Known about the structure:
Layout: H1 11-14, H2 21-34, E1 40-41, H3 48-56, E2 71-76, E3 82-89, H4 116-121, H5 123-137, E4 142-152, E5 158-168, E6 176-179, H6 189-200, H7 206-234, H8 240-255, H9 279-292, H10 298-312, H11 315-318, E7 320-321, E8 324-325, H12 326-343, H13 348-361, H14 366-371, H15 377-386, E9 395-397, H16 404-420, H17 424-437, E10 439-442, H18 446-458, E11 466-467, E12 492-495, H19 506-514, E13 519-526, H20 535-541, E14 545-552, E15 566-573, E16 583-587, E17 593-595, E18 605-607, H21 611-624, E19 637-640, H22 662-691
Parallel strand pairs: 3-4, 9-10, 9-12, 10-11, 12-13, 14-16
Antiparallel strand pairs: 1-2, 2-3, 4-5, 5-6, 7-8, 13-15, 14-15, 16-19, 17-18
Amino acid sequence: MLVITAGFKEENKVAKIQSVEPNIADLANGWxxxxxxxxxxxxxxxxxxxxxxxxxxxSKNGGDGGNRPDAKLLLQDKxxxxxxxxxxxxxxxxxxxxxxxxxxxxxxxAKNQPDFxxxxxxxxxxxxxxxxxxxxxxxxxxxxxxGMTGYKNDAGKLEYEIGVYYVSKSNFGIGQKVDDxxxxxxxxxxxxxxxxxxxxxxxxxxxxxxxxxxxREQEINASLxxxxxxxxxxxxxxxxxxxVYLVAASIIATLGVPGKVAALEKSELKSSNEDGNRDxxxxxxxxxxxxxxxxxxxxxxxxxxxxxxxxxxxxxINKVENGESQLKRVFTKIIDDLGIYYKIGLTTDxxxxxFNEMYSWLxxxxxxxxxxxxxxxxxxxxxxRLARVNKDSYVWDFATGSAGLLVAAMNEMLNDAKxxxxxxxxxxxxxxxxxxxxxxxxxxxxxxYMLAILNMILMGDGSSNILNKDxxxxxxxxxxxxxxxxxxxxxxxxxxxxxSAPGNGMIFVEKALSMMNNGYAAIIIQNSAGSGKAIEYNKxxxxxxxxxxxxxxxxxxxxxxxxxxxxxxxxxxxxAHQKDDVVKFIDxxxxxxxxxxxxxxxxxxxxxxxxxxxxxxxxxLVRFGKSKLSIFTEKEYYEGKIDPENGADWNQTAPIDTRPxxxxxxxxxxxxxxxxxxxxxxxxNMEDERLGK
Length: 693
């Protein structure tokens, strides 16, 4: 097996040797026939869905479609699950697989572009490429990719080798080697269930997952920038808002609901001028069908449809020129560039990247852009944990942005439910309840509001109570849809407010906490809010809530933004702060992460000093106090008091003791004696030199 890390043999060197691919194909296809398997050859159809996916995906040479595996099958295991099997043959020695430095199938270049040389020239690489086409464009989530190549030895005997790889959503489509095989008998009916059991036990290490995430981040960034530039440069007449709404509409239309609503395919857009069957009409119908299957209030569904309809049904975008509408063209670009990321291993990492990029499309003023800065996902999780969110919490956010904090809260609530509820039926009921009734967010900007809706839909759908309202002027504390006469029983508050608002954003905190009867709150805000910029709001807050902790965060926390010092403030709600209440002041400016804003950096965030452990210790310190000190010392952790009537003393640090100790005295004397001896020796040497000794 050849492992390639850089460069590879020139084709003209290989061309001198005659390919034995026909012999390899005859041998392998003979096995399949002997096993009684219904295999299809290159030009034959397997099924319409797979055929369409192979045609829509970019080819092994980088062109449009036309992917044709040398052989393909659709096999079923004992649980009636279907597994596509895609086979690629080559006819040269050392053309089984090209791997990167990490031992992974090398189908991407260093710049995260498709490596067409490897995809086209190596059997396994080609098969994995085909498998990703199915992950991208079909409902299949687990695919078997097989490569086989060989050569004739000096005696004229056919030598061959086989590579069998598992490609799935769970391994991000990279492909994992299953085992070494000398034939295809693992595909036989009586062997296939055992083979499937083997692939189910394949796991990626945490280190492998982290590296894949790094690569995935690079790919997402490149794809989003490419998409934006493509639409901006080539699709005239689309406003920033139109672009955001088209991304949202395209993604919703292609999500589908298993067994109920099929994902919209590119081929279904016919670019017709017929009223009711224009491309925008078709996308809108699919969105309605998708939303109807969601547990959303009718008013919410109607609002989403109305918002997207204005863009989707515009005459210009649906006008057919040269047999294609602008809408179909843009839809195709979105699905081709982004589909692989929201259909394979969707994570908050993707949604965070997506929304960061789309925020930049919206053309806010610099002040407004600073106001809608996104909270990094690991910080969002930290805030949720500091607010003590669990499966029974009712969580709200008064400046929700793209709903990143609510997504983090929803994930925490669902995970807690899974840990504590052992009845599958009860767990399912609780999950629905969490998504439908236990989350509420408010966002005043309509464009950003749609991003919040999309984010919650993508991440599991807690979008029921995401409201397009001014939380300071229009919100009375009630549910926004269906239960408009019922108060939302909030007991957890998380917030990253717009810093241009009064009190650096503390106005939102004061209103939210004053509407809660009990619970906890965790907010991240410019630290000047705690040292003089929000005195009046802070004093009001302390009349009904207790400040538990003040946490100084790293100055470079928000990569890409001007350095701003932020603090996290943690409150217990419903109890006025007393002058003798102990506040935990924690210097968390060193959190274990190294950040960079370099666009070409392989990774902008690296755990270089036990970051995960530090974040866990921080949560424990706030909850349980100094007994949890381990990584941190009393230099970073300080328990002090504030004056409830002050409002500007929230950012304290551990006092520095300037009194000299006995050890300090000993060290000073030691240093002095060392200097005295050194001076004496130096003078002695000078005297010796003067006397000529």
